[in-house]
Amino acid sequence: MITLFGQTFAPTDPEVLLLGGILLLLLVFLALILRAAGRSATLAAPVMRELGWLSQRVQQLGDGQERLAGGLHHVSEAQAHSQSAMLQVMEQRLAEVSRQMTESLHGTSTRTARSLGELQQRLQTIDRAQANIEKLSGNVLSLQDILSNKQTRGAFGEIQLHDIVQKALPRDSYTMQATLSNNRRADCLIHLPQPPGPLVIDAKFPLEAYEALRRAETPRQAQEAASLLRGAVRQHIRAISEKYIVEGETADGALMFLPSEAVYAELHANFPDVVREGFAAKVWIVSPTTCMATLNTMRAVLKDARMREQAGAIRKELALLYADVDRLGTRVENLDRHFGQAAKDLEEIKISSEKATKRARRLDNFDFEEIATPVIPSRAAE
Q1: Which of 282, 305, 343, 376 is the most exposed place for a label (fewest CB within 10 A)?
Q2: CA distance 172 to 192
Q3: Structure confidence by residue, pLDDT tens digits, 73-92
Q4: Structure confidence by residue, pLDDT tens digits, 18-41
C-alpha cells in the first residue's frame, strides 16, 4: 500500500499508475534537460519554465487526487447508508412476512381445530343416527313379525283404531269390543243418536293379498294377486254387512277400517268396483286419515245432539237464573232503603252532637246567667 497526501492507495490504482508515469516522464525530462544543459546554457530558461509548468500540473494532480479521494469517501458513505437502509427495509419486510405467516398459521390451526370439532360432532351425529337406524331396523323386523300373523295383525289394526278413536271422540261416546244383540263383537261402536244410531267400525287388514300383488313380477302373477285381493276385500265387506248392521239396533251402515294408507290407495286407484260394492252394501272403507276426518264429523254430530238433549235443562236453569236476578233486585232495593234510613239517622245524630257540643262549651265558660230555663225539645225537633 502507498500513502500519499494522507490517502492510502493500492499499487494498482489508476491514480498511482498515473502519478508514477508522470514522475517517470519528469525524470526523463530532467535527464534530457541536464544533458542539454551541457550543450547550451541558453536553453535553461525554457527548461525552467517547463519545470514550473510541470510543478503546477503536479500540484493540480494532487488537488484532483484529494477531490477524488473525498468523492470516493462520500460514495463509500452513501453506499454504506444505502446498504444500512436496505438491510433495515429487508428486516422490516422479513418481520412483516414472519408476522403474516404466524397469523396465517394461527388462523389455519384455529380453522383446522374448528373443522375437526365439527367433524367430531358430525361423526357423533352419524353414530347416533346409525344407532337409531339399527333400532328402527329391529322395530321394522318386529313389525314384520307382527303383521305376518293374522291374530297379531288383527290386534295391530284394533290398537291403531282405538288410538284414533280415543283422540277424536269423548270417552263416553264409544265402546271398544262392544257385543251386539246377535252376540257379534264389534271392534268399536260409536254411540251416535237416532238417526242414524250406533255405528260399528271393524278393522280389517288384507295384507297377504296386497303383498302378493306387490311381489308380482309377471302379468299372470299380478292378475292372480289382484283377484286374491278383490276376493278378500269382498269377503270382509260381506262379513261386516251381515254381522254388524242390525236393524233397529245399529245404524244402517258400518265402517271397514284399513290400518294402511297404501292398501286404501290401491283399492281406490285400481279396484273401484270393490269400493262401489262396499257403497252398495253400506260398508264404507276408511283409512287412518279418512277415519280421523269421519270421526271429527261424528264429534260435531254428538255435540249437536247433546246440546238438543240439554236444551230443556238449559231453559230450566235460565228460568231459575231469572228468578235469582229478580230476587237480587228486590234485595238491592231493600238495602237501598236501609241505607237511606241509616243516612237520615246519621244526620239526626250529627245535629244532636252539635247541640250537645254547644251546651258543653257554654258550661265550660260558666255562662250561667245566659242559661235560661231549659226547655225540653220534642224528639221530632231533635
Answers
A1: 376
A2: 11
A3: 777 777 777 777 777 877 78
A4: 766 777 777 777 777 667 656 655
Q: Taking Cα atoms as reference points, which of 243, 230, 245, 224 lies closest to residue 277?
A: 230
User: Which three three-digit cell numbers place residue 224?
Assistant: 292372480
Consecutive H or E run containing 176: strand 174-179
φ/ψ bin of 5: left (φ > 0), alpha (ψ from -120 to 50), beta (otherwise): left
What is the Cα–Cα distance from 334 to 54, expressed in whole angstroms? 156
Domain boundaries, the chain: 1-33+55-66, 104-147, 163-309
pLDDT in tens, 316-330: 877 888 788 888 888
Residues β-bridged to residue 9: 2
User: What 8-state DSSP symbol labels residue 192?
Assistant: P
Strands 254-257, 283-286: parallel, antiparallel or unpaired by DSSP?
parallel
Would you state the cell numbers that stand for residue 206, as one nine-digit string? 288384507
CA distances from 106 to 102, 111, 112, 119 (A): 6, 9, 10, 19
**Distance in angstroms (rounded) separating the CA atoms of residues 4 and 15:** 10
Architecture of the domain spanning 163-309: 3-Layer(aba) Sandwich (3.40)
